[in-house]
Every structure is written in structure tokens, then in C-alpha cells.
Amino acid sequence: MALVVQKYGGTSVGTIDRIRNVASRVAKTYDEGHQLVVVLSAMSGETNKLVGWARELCDHPDDREYDALVSSGEQVTISLLAMCLKSMGYQARSYLGHQVPIITSDDYSRARIEHIGSEKLRADLEAGTIVVVAGFQGMDRCGNLTTLGRGGSDTSAVALAAALNAQVCEIYTDVDGVYTTDPRIVPNASKISRISYDEMLEMASLGAKVLQTRSVEFAKKYGVVVHVRSSFNDNQGTLVMKEDSDMETVLVSGITYNKDEAKISVMRVPDKPGVASQLFLPLSEKNITVDMIIQNVSSEGYTDLTFTVPHGDFKKALKVVEATGEQIGAAGVLVDENIAKISIVGVGMRSHSGVASKMFQVLSQEGINIQMISTSEIKVSCVIDVKYTELAVRVLHEAFELGSEAVTAE
Ligand code: ASP
Ligand code: MG
Q1: Nearest atom in ligand 1 to 156's CA
Q2: How far is the CA of 148 from the centre of ligand 1 (A)?
Q3: How far, rounded to the nearest angstrom, does the alpha carbon of residue 203 sit from its chain's CA centroid?
Q4: Does the residue 218 lie in any domain?
Q5: If you take atom 4 of ligand 1, which residue's CA is the nearest one?
Q6: Which atom of ligand 1 lies at the shortest distance from residue 153's CA?
Q7: Which of 84, 286, 358, 379 has the largest CB neighbor count within 10 A?
Q8: Which numbered ligand comes closest to the C-alpha of 110?
């Protein structure tokens, strides 16, 4: 008998019929003799609807009330599922985050899980009850409702799996695993059977929207094996797990793209100590996350600084940068909102050379200009004109032979 955590995303619980489908999957796992904690998202579209209402009502909704509002979608799905399971003759019990309790920090909309009280859940599981927990939400130490960031029910599920020492955390979604790239762009993209935490972290933060990045960080920290699979079939999905030596033989595991960033260049910044900090400190104070940063070689005591920010923060960032640019005596600010970041990811890059240069060559053969480059141990990212996104993904996928068997090193 194993303890299994299953998380079902919004599309998997999007209608009453689909909730019935989830109930029968849950029942099947239970009948196989497992203890079961089920974590649910809100019905697909519901959280967006709640966010929309808040925005319609006011420009800057109150943080506390915003979280109380947007966390409500999950209350609907957990009660419906528990109700359905009970009507089928199973013992089931729904829990909101604070009923567990899932204790978080007090950063509304981006709270971090700090502690999970597992006693009640354990008692239920011992008694043969199927536990159904609302994802995405928790409670801070003062009793206020909090949420974990969009897509946060993945993190709820992994955190519960860690707290309860579950054998596996199954994340059910509308795709049956993690693919080498977006199958809408490359129809012969292949499903990755096993991927390391580090690769998944890069893929998740670079735009593969299968798992919330924070959930992968959590899984890595606590060694939770995550199985990403579909709730609409029984196919084996993708296992996200600790790296093993086999994984290093694959040079590139996946290709991702992100059209969600804009580029800001500050021209002719005086090249002296403290300037970068003067530019970036006000951005961080406004909670704007800067992604790629490039600083050019200085000439005549000046340098150009270019960086990217999420589209959502672009206007705010520009205002801040224009103001500080003036203060530090920059010549001006240039912007480009039509960019995409294309990345190749693979743990094999740690031990093999030539991967980045192959990427640059493939892009140049298509006449695609590279505007910015950044690398980590296991990824190379290039910023290009957004209109070449699909082309770049396609040619890179082909060049690294990801459609069939991945390229393996000798
Ligand atoms: N319902 C929340 C959202 O839409 C949490 C989740 O689905 O993971 O972001
Ligand atoms: Mg999701």
C-alpha cells in the first residue's frame, strides 16, 4: 500500500462530467489499495473570471480581499469531488487550505508554504478516507487567506506529497507529459519519459507551462518524484526526478520559447561603480523581476545596458528606468516589445561542448539575428525577433534530432 498524491488541473475538473471522471480515477487508485490525497484546481476559467471581476471593480484591488476572492474557485471543485466520491460509496473529506492547515508567509498572491500540519490528514488516511485538498491556497500565521501564485496548486500538491512522504505526486493535466517542445509548433515533438529536476526547472521557467516553477523547486528540495500525466488517458507520462548518469548522455532535452518579455536598453550609461545597482534597485523595489541582462564593453567611459522584463511589468519598468536613466546621465532608453526568448535545455551540456555554437549556427542558417544570449550550466537562451519564434523552434528541434531519438553523446 502506498500513499499517492494526485493533483487535477482546471481542465480535468472543468465540468460536472469531468469531475465524475476524476472521481472514478480516484476510486480506481483507492481500490488498488492506496491511500490517497487529491489536490484540485478551480474549474478551468474560474480563477480568471474572479481576477476579471476584481479588476473590473477597481484598479488596485486590496491584496487581502483579492486572495480571499481568487482562492474561492477551489472550494467549489473540492466539495463537488468529495460529494461525488461519497455518493459512490467511498469515504471522502474536503479540506480548504486553512483547514489542513497549510501555513504560508503573508505575501498575498505569492505566498510561500512554510508549514503543513499533517495530523488530521494522516488520521483520515489511516481511517480509509480519501482526502481532497484545495490547491493554490493557504493561511498566514494571522489567519488570513493567502494564495500561492497562478498555477499554484501544483505547488500545493508537491508540498503535501513532501509533508506526507508520499511515494509519488501525480500531476494530471490536459497533456500527457512534458514534451521536447510545444507540439502545436512541432507536431512530431516527443514525450520525455524522464527529466531531471534541474532541466524541468529551466523548462518551466523558460515557458513550458506544464508545471509551476515553484512546485519543481519544492520537488527538488524534498526529493518528491513527480509524474506528469493526462487525466484523459492511461498513458505513462513524464517522471520528474533526481538526475542519473543516463540523463547526461542526452545533449539537449527540450526547446522552449517565451514571448512574454520585452527588452529595455539604457544607452550610454557612465561606466563606473554603482551604476548597475542604481538602475536595478528601484526595479526590484517595485517587485519587477529582471530576466536577461547584458552590459556592453565600455568605450570612452560609457556603456550600454540591455535587459528584459515580463510584458506585464513593462510599462512600470519603463517609467522607473526613464527616471533613473536621467538621474545617472544616460543618453536615452530604447525599447522593443516584439522579442522572443528561445532556449535549449539539457544536463548533457555540462559535460559536452559545442552545443551553444550549434544553436547559433542553426539560427544563422535561417537568417535569424540573435539580439541577446545568456547561458547557464544546462541551457542556452537567445533573444530574437518574435516573428521568427516558430521557425527557430522548428529548426532547432530538427537540428538536435528531438523528434525521433534524442542525439546522444559518444
Ligand atoms: N486556480 C489557480 C489558477 O488558475 C491555481 C491553479 O490552477 O493551479 O492559477
Ligand atoms: Mg496548471
Answers
A1: 8
A2: 9
A3: 8
A4: no
A5: 47
A6: 8
A7: 379
A8: 1
| Within-domain flag for 284 | no
Residues 6+ apart with CB under 8 A from 234: none
C-alpha cell at 125: 488516511
Dihedral of the CA atoms 249, 251, 254, 258 (nearest 10)?
150
CATH code for the domain of 75: 3.40.1160.10
Query: How far is the C-alpha of 396 from the C-alpha of 75, rounded, in Å?
Result: 43
Query: Nearest Cα to 313, choosing from 340, 337, 339?
Result: 337
Tell me, in angstroms, the distance from the centre of ligand 1 to residue 122's CA.
25
Question: Which residue type does 46 have?
Answer: E
At residue 174, what are phi and psi to the nearest 5 degrees?
Answer: -95, 0
What's the total number of domains in the chain? 1
pLDDT tens for each residue of 123-140:
999 999 999 999 999 999
Task: Examine the pLDDT at 230 and tell me if it is beyond 90.
Answer: yes
Residue reference for cell 544616460: 330
* Domain extent at residue 23: 3-174
The answer to whether residue 333 sits within a structural domain is no
Peptide bond into 101 cis (omega under 30): yes
DSSP states of 214-255: HHHHHHHHHT--EEEEESSS----EEEE---GGGGGBS--EE
pTM of the model: 0.87
Indicate the average pLDDT of the chain: 94
Q: For residues 294 and 339, what is the distance between their CA atoms, to the nearest angstrom?
A: 15
| CA distances, 58 to each of 54, 62, 108, 124, 246 (Å) | 6, 9, 17, 42, 53
Residues 153-166 have a mean pLDDT of 97
Residues 6+ apart with CB under 8 A from 186: 180, 393, 394, 397, 403
| Residue 134 placed within a domain | yes
Nearest to 385 by CA among 263, 255, 207: 263
Evaluate whether 178 touches 223 at the Cβ level (below 8 Å).
no
pLDDT in tens, 239-275: 999 998 888 888 899 999 999 999 999 999 998 899 9
